[in-house]
Amino acid sequence: MSVEIPILSDVVMIFGLSSAVIIASHRFKIPPVIGFLLTGVLAGPYGLGLVGAEQEVEIFAEIGVILLLFVIGMELSLEELQRLRKPVFIGGAAQVLLTIVVFELPFMVFGVGIGKAVFIGFLAALSSTAIVLKLLAEKAQLGAPHGRISLGMLIFQDVAVVPMMLLVPLLAGAGGNPWLSLGEMGLKAALVGGVLFVAARKLIPRVLEAVIRTRSRELFLMTTLGLCFAIALLTSSVGLSLSLGAFLAGLIMSESEYSHSALEGVLPFRDVFTSVFFVSIGMLLDPAFVVTHLPQVLGLTTTILVLKAALAAVAGRLLGYPWHVAILGGLCLCQIGEFSFVLAGVGMGSDLLSAVEYQYFLAVAIMTMAVTPFLIAAVPAISERLVRLMPPGLKAAPPREAEAEMSDHLVIAGFGLGGHHLARAAKAAGIRYVVLEMNPDTVRRERAKGEPILYGDASQAAVLEHINVAGARILAVVISDPAAIGRIVATARAHNPALHIVVRTRFVSEIEPLMQLGAQEVVAEEYETSVEMFIRVLSTYLVPKADIERFVREIRAEGYGMLRRSMLNTADAYSLDGVCSSFGATVLAVAPGAFVEGRSLAQTHLRKEHGLTVVAVQRDGKTVLNPAADWVFAAGDRAHVFGEQSVISDKAGLFLGHGDGAGTGPGEA
């Protein structure tokens, strides 16, 4: 007897239609987000009416937002969040308050009540965390200055939506005391924060360690997702948002040594459910309404995009960033956010929005979301245009201290992890250097430590002149903003044709454009990771070190050409044929009850009967090389064993407690 699942047909319809629309979007080079929004419009009740279980789809969408915030939290850390405190509390508060004030004033002028006007300001103040962070992450711009601005303000918005929801009854003129509710919420938030702090330090690490010991991938994934939803449910139960709880859960998980494994398991779920979120947004829109009110919708959309970008840019400028960086951050935040849809639904129930006004809101909000991928994709071009068009007074100010007297020095652009390491190496080698950094907090903190670091944009000619780039020997660019890297290289090359420019970038595909701009050496993280991988693999196969180094030198001499070519001509490359070895070495810990425990090396007959040679044994922190025949193995010893790799795999059980070792694999107990 078959059991009918009503939502199953809707799920099949959504995924089938999404696949078709996304394939078409890919062919016409339309961002996937727009494809999912179009899917929702087509499948929704105002389109073809293919999906009936709208509430269930909204639940899936909420799960998508929860998982997105959970992953964002895991990709951050408490230390990173500490560095973002100014963008969150100063930039975020300024952006939200400015937007509310600017958007409420015109409505009040035209006779709209103050409650409704403020509510419209609430709707306009929120941006889309789901869209912005997903697109910035895909384009590797989260670490760029405008990415940090966007992330900080989005975090504040996700927190601010809670008091906004509580203030809706007050704005609608309903009874009750919302200020009492806000105070109660604050107390609950403090209590939840204390509970989570204790759990993050004491309970959760022990739980994760116990789960990891089972070596069950399924249990680990279930525990990770359970942690995410449990904390989200906890914050929701005290009046905070589910998404905020998921973000806190991700932060807690990020402090664990198992965060990378958790991230790998959660990502597929996030992608699926986040896609459903965009579909659910599209289902709300009535296309007929948009068509009949197209001029008004386009006018409102343009107004909101321009005003929100400008106001967010002002907030970014208050943080100390130059205008062109602040404007880029504003462009990322100029759309209406997903939490605005939730807020609008509450406003509808409180008669703060009419049915027609709600459709206007939906049309404008979805159109701003649809424009966002194109704006973020155009950020590099917009940034370059802004730098050229801006008056000198609005560009990044030069460093306060002129360093023109320096010569033959190293200039480091960016002071993240790479910049720190490079500065440390330069200091150890006695090389004079100066650092340029765009984050004012980093500059203030590092200057207090004695670092020769200045606040300034390395892409600006005036800044480079103040540090005498014309007399420098090397410029090392170690920042995360691809657009800014190109500008820095071009500007520096124009000021010093003899300057040796070394650039760190993320992808191999970015090497050639940067070389054309004037960089002598471009270090791609993607490339260096691949080199490190094959070095370790070949070393494990006991390929002679000299052969590996010769192979690496050839790749580097070709300027990464071997890895960039789609078809590698192995005849032109240095051959490694015949140098790989079937022999290997591994470390096997002696388990209690193992065959070798309590026996001397001579009694085990490891070399004669099993083909294994023990070259060293570690015990109690001491290492014994080439142990004598009378050496007696004890539980806990770590034996360094050499032999054919297949033999080691078969005989590892002699050390691990699996009898004669047949069928066992190498490893450490």
Write a brief caption for the model.
The protein is of the alpha/beta class and 669 residues long.
Name its key features.
669 residues; alpha/beta; 6-stranded parallel sheet; 4-stranded antiparallel sheet; 10 strands
Overall description:
The protein is of the alpha/beta class and 669 residues long. Helix content is 63%, strand content 8%. It is built from 30 helices and ten strands. The protein has helices at 6-27, 32-43, 54-75, 78-83, 85-109, 114-125, 129-138, 145-171, 178-213, 217-237, 242-254, 259-283, 287-292, 294-318, 323-332, 338-349, 355-377, 379-389, 417-428, 440-448, 461-466, 482-495, 511-517, 525-540, 545-557, 561-564, 601-604, 606-610, 645-651, 653-656; strands spanning 410-413, 433-437, 453-455, 474-477, 500-505, 521-524, 583-589, 613-619, 622-625, 638-644. A six-stranded parallel beta sheet has the order 3-2-1-4-5-6, sandwiched between helices. It has a four-stranded antiparallel beta sheet with strand order 7-10-8-9. Helix 2 (32-43) packs across helix 12 (259-283), helix 6 packs antiparallel against helix 16 (338-349) and helix 14 (294-318) packs across helix 15 (323-332). The longest helix is centred in the first third of the chain and has 36 residues, at 178-213. The chain is globular. 41% of the residues are buried. Residues 562-574 and 660-669 have low confidence and may be disordered.
